[in-house]
Design a protein that fits this description.
Blueprint (H helix, E strand, L loop, with lengths): L2 H14 L2 H7 L4 H15 L4 E3 L3 E4 L1 H25 L7 E7 L4 H14 L3 E7 L2 H10 L4 E5 H5 L5 E9 L1 E6 L9 E2 L3 E2 H4 L4 E4 L4 H13 L7 E3 L2 H10 L3 E5 H6 L6 E7 L5 E8 L6 H10 L2 H8 L10
Parallel strand pairs: 3-4, 3-5, 8-13, 9-13, 10-11, 10-12
Antiparallel strand pairs: 1-2, 5-14, 6-14, 7-12, 7-13
Helix pairs in contact: 1-2, 1-3, 1-4, 2-3
Amino acid sequence: MNLFVSLKYLVALDDHRHFGRAALACSVTQPALSNAIRALEVSFGTTIVKRGRNFAGFTVEGERILASGRKILREYELLQQDLHSSHEAPRGNLLIGAVPTAMPIASRFVALLQQRHPGITPALRSMSSVEVETGLESLSLDMGLGYTERMDKSQSAVRVIPQYTEHYFLLRKAPPAEHHGLRIGPSMRWADAGRLPLCLLSQEMHNRTIIDRAFAEAGVQPQPAIETNSILTLALSVRAGNVCSIMPGALVDDVQGYNDIEALPLVEPGVAIRIAFMVHDTNRPSRTLEAALAFAEDPAWLREVAGHAGALGDMG
C-alpha cells in the first residue's frame, strides 16, 4: 500500500463526498479508490468510512485519520516545495477558494500571480462562504477570498489581508445605445429596487444574506422571481427576460461589454462590504503561499483590484 496515494484518495472522498466523483478527480477507477481506502482500514485496524448504498460519511476514527492525513499531505507538499524551489522562484501547487461574487477578482489574481511566478500552479474553486471557512480550518485550502464580516464573528485563527470593498448595483435591461458598453444610471433606493421582479442568488449564499439585510433596513421584503447559485445567471437573466438583478461592483465590472444593460448604484442604505484574502494562521506557509501573500499586498496588485471592483465611480 502506498500511504500517500491512499491518503490522497481519502481526502478526495472527503472533498467530493462521492466515491465515483472522487475516483474521477484522482484519475482512477472507483474500485481502485475503494480498495485503497479498505487497505488503509486494514493498516489502521479500524473502519474509516461509513458504507451504505452511497457514501454516508466517516466514522469518528475515520475523521481523526482524515485530519491527520491532510496534515501529512500538507507536510509532504511543504517539503517538496522546500526541496525543489526557493523564495525567489517558488514552485508548486496553490489551492484558492473564493466566494462566487469575488470570482472575477480571484481570476485576475491567479492569472497575474502565475505570470509573475511561472513555477506556481494555482487551482481556483468557486465555493460558498461556509466551504471556504471549512477549507481553511481543515487546511484543504491555502487561501480563501471572501467576506471579512464573517471572520469578525469567528474564533478561527485566520489572518486577513484586505483587498477591496463591495458596493451594490441594480442591473436592469436598457435600450441599446450608440456607444458600446455598460451604462451607469442614476442612484436607486433599495426600497424601490425591492418592488421590482428580481433574480437573486439563493439563500445559502452569504451575498443573499447581505442583500436581504439591506432590504430589511429599507423596510421591504422582496419575493425573488428567480433564484440561482450561479453568478452568470444573474446577468444573463436580465438580458434574456423581464427581471432585474443585484450585483456587487466586481461582477458589474465583468459585464461592461453589454450595451443593453444599465447599472444603478443602490442607496438608502449605503452598503459597503469588505472583501479580503484569508489564510489559516500557520507558522509555516509554503513557498507558493508566501509568494501569493506577498502579491496580495503588492501596491500594483491593489491598484489592479481598485480598477475592477468597488464603487466603479469612473464608469459611465
